[in-house]
Design goal:
Layout (H helix, E strand, L loop, with lengths): L1 H5 L2 H8 L3 E6 L3 E6 L6 E4 L2 E4 L19 H18 L14 E3 L3 E2 L48 E4 L2 E4 L1 E3 L1 H4 L7 E4 L2 E2 L2 E2 L7 H18 L12 E6 L5 H14 L4 E6 H8 L5 E6 L4 E7 L2 E10 L3 H14 L14 H14 L7 E9 L7 E7 L82 H10 L4 H8 L2 E4 L8 H12 L11 E2 L8 H12 L7 E2 H7 L13 H11 L2
Parallel strand pairs: 1-13, 5-18, 6-18, 13-14, 15-20, 20-21
Antiparallel strand pairs: 1-2, 2-3, 4-9, 4-10, 7-8, 11-12, 14-22, 15-16, 16-17, 18-19
Amino acid sequence: MDYLKTAIPSQLISERGSNLVVINPGSANIRVGLAQQDAPFIVPHCIARHTTQVPKRNLQDQMLNSQVTTAQHMEREKAYDIIASLLKIPFLDEEVPNSGSFQRKMGRVDGYNPQNVRKDSVFAWTDVNEKQSSTLVTDSSKDKDVPSTSLDQHEGMDMDLGEHKYRRFICGEEALKISPTEPYCLCRPIRRGHLNISQDYPMQQVYEDLHTIWDWILVEKLHIPQSERNMYSAILVVPETFDNREIKEVLSIVLRDLQFSSAVVHQEGLAAAFGNGLSTACIVNMGAQVTSVICIEDGVALPNTEKTLPFGGEDISRCLLWTQRHHQTWPQVRTDMLTKPIDMLMLNELKESYCYIQEGEVDAVAVVHSYEDGMPAASHRTRLTALNVPPMGLFYPMLLVPDVYPPPPRSWFNDYEDMLEETWHVDYPRRPDMADGLYPGFNIGLPMWDSYPIFQTKPKKEEKVGLAEAITSSILSTGRIDLKRKLFCTIQLIGGVALTEGLIPAVEDRVLHAIPSNEAIDTVEVLQSRTHPTFVSWKGGAILGILDIGRDAWIHRMDWIHNGIHVGSGRKYKDSYYVQAQATCYINS
C-alpha cells in the first residue's frame, strides 16, 4: 500500500504492465493489448471458416432478420420529418434543391483506413489460399512445448481441396474482405452486446469461435504462444450488456482454454471512468451495435442506473444508405451489408468522414466504391445529401430500425450467482457432481438445473427510448439531488460514435430539455475524454489491473477449473474506494 502511494505511474507500468493482457470484447471489434501499451490492437471481432457446403449465403450472418415492416417504414419516415424540422432541412418527400447546399470536399470511401493505406492502393480481396512456405502463426508458436491439443492453427491451417489449399479460418479485417464467391462462412460470436447464440449458431460453436479469435490475436499481434501464457494474467473488461452466464463463459475461455494463470473481471463503464480519471460520472458507451448508460459514484457502479439501447454506429451507417437511396443519390450498384461485409466497412468509413450534426443542409461529394462478385472495385463519384440526419437517429431511434437477432431463451441467462455484485448470503443447494464436466460449476441450462433456485440479478432489458431520455432517466434514478446535479455535469461519451462531430452540443441541449421541469437542475455538461473514446474502457482496465494486482478479486486458473466460484468465496469483482483513489491519482499524475 505504501509502495503504491509513492510509485510513479511509469514505474508501475514497467513493473506490472508487462505481463498483464487486457481484453475488452465488443460486438463489432475486440480491443486487446498489454497493460503497458499506450493503445490496444483493435481487431474486427469475427471469423470466417472454410466450408465444404455450397450455399449462396456464405457471408450472411446467422438468423439475421433485416426485413423492415410497413409499420416500421412509416415510423422511420415520420422520424425523418421530425428531424428535418429540427435541422431546418427539406422533409423526406420534398424536392431537394441543388444550389445553396453546403458541400465538403471529395474523399475516397472504400473501407480503407487512410492513415495506414496509401491513396494509390488498389483494393484486393483476401487471399484465402494457404501458402506452402508459411503459416499464419509466428515462429514463437512453433515451440516444441506447444501442447498437441492446442487449436488447429498450431497444427497447420491449410486445407487441401484438390488444386487449392484453403486456410481453415481467417480472423479480423481479412475475414471481412473475403470475396462472396469463396467457400467461407463469416461468424460474429457477439451480436448486440450478447453472445450470438441461436438455433443456427450453437453455443459450443460460439465458444470455439471466441477461443480461436482470441488465441489468434494473442499469437499474431501480441506474440504470446500458449506455452508462455502461464506467465501472464488477463484483465477482462466486459460490456454492461453481458449477463452473469456470459461473463462466466468468457472467463472460462480465458482461464481454461487460453490458459492464463489468473484473471479478473471489470465492468466496461466503470473502467471508462477510471480511464479518464473520474470518480463520479455518467458513462454513455456508444458502440457499433449497442449503446449503454450507467452512472458511477465514487468509483462504484450503480446497477439500478443501467440503461441499454439496441442501436449503435452500424445502425447509423445502415440509415445513411437508406437515406441516400431514398433521395436517389446512391449509385446504381448492389450495396449489400449482409452478404458483403466490405460494404459495411465502406459505409462506416463514409459515416465517419462525412456525417455530423449541424443545422441546415449538409451535402458532400464522395467517391463510393462497389465490389461486385469477381470484378475489380469500381469507383462512383456522387453527391450525398442529408448527411446530418442519420446521427440524429440516436435521439429518434425509430429512424434506425435496427436489425433483429433472435436471442437465446431467457432461461439461458438464469444463474444462481452474480459475478459483478455482492450476493446475498443465501445457501444454494448444489449437486455433489456439479464440478464435473466441461464447464465446472456452471449453470449450463441442462434439465438437472431446472429445480435449482435462481438468484434474480439485475435485468438486462433494452430500453425503447432515445439517447437523451436514457441519459436523463439513468441519472434521475439515483435519487439524491446533489448526486444528480454532479452527474448531469460529468457526462462522458465513449465509443466510436462519440467521435461524431457536433454530437456533444446536441447531447447537452437535448438532455437539458429532457429533464422534467420539477427538477432543480439547469446545467448539463459533457466532458471531453482524456483518452481516445474508442478504447478508454480498455485503458481503464489496464490501470485497474496494474493497481489491483495483489488483491483478492483475481481468480486463479486451477481454482476456476476445479471449483468455479462459490457464493461467499470473496473471489469476485468488488468495487473498492482504495483502488478508485489510486486510479484517480495515477491518471492525474
